Amino acid sequence: MVVLDASVILKWFIEENDSEKARAILNRYIKGDFIIVVPDFLLYEVANVLKYSGAFSEKEVTEAITSLYDLEIKIISSLPDVIKTMIKLSFQKGITSYDAIYLALAMELQVPLITADVRLYHKINDIKYVKLLKDFAIPE
User: Fold this and answer.
1) Is residue 65 classed exposed, middle or buried when 0-12, 13-18 and 19+ CB atoms within 10 A define those classes?
2) Could you tell me which residues come within 8 angstroms of residue 114 by beta carbon, excluding any fewer than 6 positions away?
């Protein structure tokens, strides 16, 4: 089980550095090798980035979000304890609540958070759950 943040999942739709690695994680998920968990906030974040990228129509953004539901990724609504941890992390680490929600969920589940956001990674990499996509070894 892993938590993926939007910086990783967006690479499924937008060709960027490490998109191939992000899609390899997706392919391993599809094969049933592990479970992907995300906070429900991810849906808003992905839709927003795709919209403002200028490369996607309304229909294409809708299809992208629908595809995430179709993949049956575990989408978790944030519980009060996770929100409290999110707030604490955002203050302690000087990060947005938007970024902290992924880390709080990973900590709650005690699973890795995989991010492709290098600046975020450098702020939170002292927490054992945090993995940078480019360095993440996809389990065999």
Assistant:
1) middle
2) 2, 3, 4, 5, 8, 25, 131, 132, 133, 136
Report the predicted TM-score, pTM, of the whole model to 2 decimal places. Answer: 0.94
Cβ–Cβ under 8 Å, residues 9 and 68: yes
Residue in the structure block whose two tokens are 């707030």: 87
Domains identified in the chain and CATH numbers: 2-135 (3.40.50.1010)
- H, E, C per residue of the chain: CEEECHHHHHHHCCCCCCHHHHHHHHHHHHCCCCCEEEECHHHHHHHHHHHHHCCCCHHHHHHHHHHHHHCCCEEECCCHHHHHHHHHHHHHHCCCHHHHHHHHHHHHHCCCEEECCHHHHHHHCCCCCEEEHHHCCCCC
User: What is the chain's Cα-based Rg?
Assistant: 14
Tokens of 1: 């089980």
pLDDT per residue as tens digits for the range 89-138: 999 999 999 999 999 999 999 999 999 999 999 999 999 999 999 999 87
